[in-house]
Please model this.
Amino acid sequence: MQRKLYALFLAGVMSLGVLAGCGSSSGSMETSSGTETDTVNVDGQDAAADEIEGEDQAKEELVFVNYRDIRDLNPHLYAGEMYAQEMLYETLVNITEDGYEGCLAESWEISEDGRIYTFKIRDGVYFSDGEVCDAYAIKANFDAIIENKDRHTWLEMMNLLVGVSAPDEHTFIIELSEPYYPMLTELGVTRPFAMISPAAMKDGSTMDGVNAYIGTGPYVLTDFVTDEYAVFEANENYWGEQPAIKKITVKVIPDNQTRVLALEKGEIDMIFGKNMLDADAINQYMDKDGFTVYMSDPTSTRQIVLNTNNSILSDTTVRQALQHATNKQAISEGIFYGLEPAADTLFSTTTPYCDIGLEPYEYDMDKAAEMLAEAGWTMGSDGVLEKNGQKFELGLLYNSDSVTEKAIAEHLQSEYSTLGIRLNIHGEEEQSYRDNMKAGNFDMVFNICWGTPYDPQSSLAAMRAPVYGDFAAQQGLHDKAEIDEAISNILISTDEQERQELYTYVLTRLHEDAVYIPLTYECNKAICRSDLQGFHFTQTQYEVPFQDFYF
Model:
């Protein structure tokens, strides 16, 4: 149930929001400063209220904002904005707070050995270009995805896939070589298993692009200008319930303060996303008349990844010393006003399989200094530690598109310097930052866990290949092969107890190896006009459920 909090915001004290299931308007908590006033009724109707109600009913357009363009919305690739892909495309199943529900598949059956999934495809669904979305169209999509299989190997199901078939227009079958417990989760996330009209493919392929962004979702893309705006309008042929908001205009505003000012002026209706809003903006609007702030439960872990191939960071003792030298509570309170709680472990204990009693690395600068001394580092005349002629100097790479990573980097730079560690910080725009992270071109780098519903299975599975920075960062671990093998066994395990034991082993090894410095548990955030109703978060932090909103 939603509830309004009228008390003044106390920094670092409130913990707000719970994740809500898809299509439900319940489950998220809001804060608003809206005051309730009495009205005078005339003949049972208040003319002013009636006029306002009429204006609200007439308002069918929402102005959204993002820091960048929608980019390539090919649903089988990874360059496009996920909120936009969710508006256009749909998958076989939806992931809800209570589990899985049918979407393009009305129902499904899983074979006794867990290897064969048989889906009954919903009747009467059409792509927005008029093409029927039946089992044959879905097979065409899977064929296109499989053609580009190497791009999707972060999904273990692609490695276990034997084949797909459509024996008739209502039946679609997926066969695996082994049982795979995260199967429905991977089929339900935004990409790559969203369906595009086969007529929009290039000769049956999507790996080199598509001719148009045509899906079965509640909206269609009607106009866009690169780096300026995009316009989505309700899909008149949508098989589900028609959205109340008929038009969504997305403005591109890269600067954080400019976005907040646009909201203040009424030029936009909502700002959404954990990296779109800093704690100052949340604090500013927490009790501001006419606006509502929403926050979710923790969705992912903000972290720093340490590259074990680096000559300094190859030493486990050094990595553990950096853990003790990182004041996560200060970061939580000083940068996020407590809105993001300090993180003790790589995954929060609320993440499935992750409540295993790991002992956190306590903030202790004396202990950190002692451990560095044990590792052979002594203070040089210039105030920088050195060992065998080498200075203790590291680089920290951050995403310059994030509104908070630079602040954290500067805090760590100052803190570590008291130990004699020279930390050079460097920000790059997101694509360059991700390219360097994937290639292992870093000493230390900011990253996040994949978040719900990908954690822990997809985050761990991707560590076995150069998907993000994890693979490169872990190459110096003596137990890398054993960790990878255990992760592979997790994914095909059919025994719940065995799966938990394997998770415990992997998470313990990563914790003791100290490859990751968890900082805070991220929350999804939004500020919107108070007359926007039906707001809720979903099971994926990247989706904005516009179809459930109304004024």
